[in-house]
Amino acid sequence: MSTTAATRVAEPSGSIAKTRRDRTHIVRGRVAVLLKYVSLCVGCLTAMVPILVVFFTAFKTSAEFKSTEAFAPPRDWLNFANFGEFFAKAHVPAALFNTAFIMVISIAGTVLIGSTAAYALNRFEFKLKRLVVGLFLIATLVPVITQQVAVFPLVVSLNLYDTRWSMIVLSVGTDIVSLYIFMQFMQGIPKELDEAAALDGANHVTIFARIIFPLLKPAIATVVIIKGVFIYNDFYTPYLYMPSLSVMSTSLSRFRGPYGTRWELISAGVIVIIVPTLVLFLFLQRYIYNGFTSGSSK
């Protein structure tokens, strides 16, 4: 067989194989897209089902809650008696004041400590730099419950137990997430700004206060949102260290007793507590994403 004839025979078979490969890639791509959307739908349902049950329960009476299924919608959507009873018995104004007081001081301390620590770790070189960063990472691996064995006696010895300051002292320190956000964003700030200010006679405190800190506004907004939502939703710490003082999260425990639990009131309280953080997240979510990514994209 001549070379020309062999080429003619090979061309159809090669084009057929290429067509099969193209079809295989198309099928695999469609399957991948289908699996992606199926997994997203499953994840959304997993997250939304508990919220839907709580929403239904909040509008049911006690008798209706006991006689109907969890996924059954309430008979009367205008039944706001559970919300009124929750506000009356949970002492919402006092709980809201305690929560706001703790959040403001704790967030201010976290921003100040976290930004200065990130400035020191990002702008200076010293022998124990890697050790300090490593200790922050190791601290996140220690379970919070095991830490209370040492923390609880310390709080009692400082006469902070059952006061707002116990929660503030335990929350005011920075964490690895806040430190990472500040360090990641600070990497995008040119060091030439520090050098130019130093040539003008500015010391490190002035450089940080007048140049670095004002440029950290996106990172500060991110830390404020993340830390604020965490403190607002934290139940374990105030329940352990502030038994006689209510915050928004522990106010739900008033409706749980040895003879029964008022789930319809707890559900109404959960909605009241969720709404502020949900609205805050929906309006400020872009700051959260920008705070994580702006440091690496600048």
Strand order across the largest sheet: 1-2
CATH class descriptor of the largest domain: Mainly Alpha
Q: Can you count the beta strands?
A: 2
What gap, in angstroms, lies between the N and C termini? 64 Å
Largest beta-sheet characterization: 2 strands, antiparallel
Low-pLDDT ranges: 5-11
Number of helices: 13
Question: Can you identify the CATH superfamily of the largest domain?
Answer: MetI-like
The coarse overall form would be: flat
What's the helical proportion of residues? over 70%
Question: What does this entry look like structurally?
Answer:
The structure is a single chain. The protein is mostly helical. It folds into two domains: 3-67; 91-297, MetI-like (MetI-like fold), CATH 1.10.3720.10. The protein is 77% helix and 1% strand. The chain has helices at 3-58, 62-67, 81-89, 92-123, 129-141, 144-157, 164-172, 176-186, 191-199, 204-215, 217-233, 236-241, 263-297, and strands spanning 256-257, 260-261. Strands 1-2 form a two-stranded antiparallel ribbon. Strand 1 (256-257) and strand 2 form a beta hairpin. Helix 11 packs antiparallel against helix 13 (263-297). The radius of gyration is 28 Å and the shape is flat. The chain starts with a helix and ends with a helix.
Topology:
Blueprint: H1 3-58, H2 62-67, H3 81-89, H4 92-123, H5 129-141, H6 144-157, H7 164-172, H8 176-186, H9 191-199, H10 204-215, H11 217-233, H12 236-241, E1 256-257, E2 260-261, H13 263-297
